[in-house]
Design a protein that fits this description.
disordered C terminus, single chain, 516 residues, alpha/beta
């Protein structure tokens, strides 16, 4: 492989006037984009940013975020992307744990940091504001003026340099940043290119937060292949339709919670009056989509529809072409190229087809460990295989069925109950928009199944009918013993259900608190 910055600058030389990146009304051609990257790289190098330095990026979805990604790749620096929506204390915790030396953010955020009462002196290098000028930082506009115009990469960054420290947890607890090298991000981008037949003609949409691995990959895919990258500043289903139509989007990977909203929007008058004709392929990521939603999306979007399974540490591990494998629509597909998937018991022994156990994966797209956490890294591996902490099973044809997070399994009377089984059943009933099963403490059985339900039509919702349907379609040990009607299911920024919040919320309400 060539370095990431080298490849993108080559694309700029080949097609300088082609649209490289679009975010809202802001558009940069390859010439404009590469020139900004080149000038900022040289300016930051002159200000002391060196290969291996850690740069905190605390920005919303914007073109400046992508520019800074590529500047870091060019310099061989490491970015630490953090959600700008977190409170200052949480951001401080993550940046300090990640040994951040320089920071790039909004001027208003810098003011918030400095007035928070927290000690940010560990960020001893460059403070860069991408918008307004503030006393404690240099503005990006002023930085660009420090060097003459040029379209030339420094190419200091090499393929095995750490590129991104991605924090998977730690906003309130103990951060465990994932190390992703330039080679890993390159491999992940081109694995998706091969899997979904992406070309330089594609216009790829990133509608998830850029501080997460998925959106970063969706930005790199078009820039490395000479295509066009389109970024949504913020997601809503209606704006998604407008963005796709306006920018003639052809490819995207979306999280399941977004696709549920898109499916609902398909039946609205706004969607019917603005049919999407450009889309070639959509991939569902994050949590499982109900088969009914998959069918509605296939029917309404008229394009290839895939579902994938993976994790931040390993990227895409399996893929399902929903049209080509209709009889396997409840699965998440077969292993992606060069990926090996196994199901093992608690001792790491391989299990036979059909037997549930932990999903482990061997892949060339694997992370390089958790930053400064060698024991945690070792505990996450079985030899060359990454332990996902997810439960699943493989059938005889090699299709993977995801059963849920190991920590989310409900153990009632010693029997394992998988939340997905209850949620799939409720989804097929017809009156449930969304649901989430979670454990509820019980003195006799330890735990029983509880379920939070979002009705499609709250005023017409028949809970007795739901209970009858569950009794007819679930085993006795799977039957929910507690039902809670809610307005929405709590999710994180990547659309994953936060079952622990439900368990804590409703156990506390009922005066039945769980230990831990």
């Amino acid at each position: 492989m060539r370095s990431i910055s080298q490849k993108i600058f080559e694309n700029a030389m080949l097609n300088p006037d082609k649209q490289a990146i679009i975010c809202g009304d802001n558009v940069l051609t390859y010439r404009q984009f590469s020139e900004k990257v080149s000038r900022i790289s040289r300016a930051l190098k002159s200000r002391g940013i060196s290969r291996g330095d850690h740069i905190g990026i605390v920005l919303p979805n914007c073109i400046e975020f992508v520019i800074c990604m590529l500047v870091a790749a060019d310099l061989g620096a490491v970015i630490v992307p953090v959600s700008s929506h977190l409170p200052a204390k949480a951001i401080h915790h993550i940046l300090q744990a990640s040994d951040v030396k320089h920071i790039i953010t909004m001027g208003g955020t810098i003011k918030d940091f400095l007035s928070s009462g927290l000690d940010f002196t560990f960020i001893s290098g460059v403070w860069l504001s991408v918008d307004i000028k503030v006393k404690a930082a240099i503005s990006m506009r002023a930085l660009i003026k420090e060097v003459p115009s040029d379209i030339k990469a420094l190419n200091i960054g090499k393929e095995d340099d750490p590129f991104i420290l991605l924090t998977t947890s730690g906003s309130t607890g103990d951060p465990k940043p994932i190390i992703l090298t330039q080679r890993t991000k390159w491999n992940r981008a081109f694995a998706a290119v091969e899997l979904y037949k992406v070309t330089s003609e594609d216009r790829t949409l990133a509608a998830t937060p850029l501080y997460h691995s998925l959106a970063e990959r969706l930005v790199l895919i078009p820039l490395l292949t000479g295509g066009t990258s389109i970024i949504m500043p913020q997601f809503s289903a209606l704006e998604w339709f407008r963005c796709v139509q306006k920018n003639k989007v052809t490819f995207t990977i979306a999280v399941s919670s977004q696709l549920r909203q898109i499916s609902e929007q398909l039946s609205s008058s706004d969607a019917k009056n603005s049919k999407i004709k450009s889309m070639r392929c959509i991939v569902s990521s994050s949590e499982l989509l109900e088969p009914k939603i998959k069918k509605e999306l296939l029917k309404g979007l008229h394009c290839d529809f895939h579902e994938c399974y993976g994790a931040s540490e390993i990227a895409i591990a399996s893929d399902l072409d929903c049209e080509a494998a209709k009889r396997k629509v409840n699965s998440v597909g077969r292993a992606a190229p060069e990926v090996d998937i196994k199901i093992v018991d608690k001792n790491g022994n391989d299990l036979t087809p059909g037997s549930p156990g932990e999903i482990i994966c061997k892949t060339p797209m694997i992370f390089s460990g958790y930053y400064k956490r060698p024991n945690l890294t070792a505990a996450a591996m079985y030899g060359e295989y990454f332990r996902t902490g997810d439960l699943g099973k493989l059938d005889k044809e090699g299709f993977l069925y995801f059963l849920g997070r190991e920590k989310d399994i409900i153990i009632t009377g010693g029997i394992n109950v998988y939340p997905s089984d209850i949620e799939y059943t409720l989804a097929s009933q017809g009156s449930v928009q969304e649901s989430a099963a979670f454990p509820y403490t019980d003195k006799r059985l330890g735990e029983v199944v509880a379920v939070a339900i979002v009705p499609k039509k709250p005023k017409e919702f028949d809970l007795r009918g739901i209970k009858r349907y569950c009794a007819e379609n679930l085993a006795d040990f799977q039957m929910p013993r507690k039902y809670f009607i809610v307005n929405k299911i709590p999710k994180n920024t990547m659309g994953k259900t936060m079952r622990r919040i439900l368990a804590k919320q409703f156990c506390d309400i009922m005066g039945n608190k769980k230990d831990g």
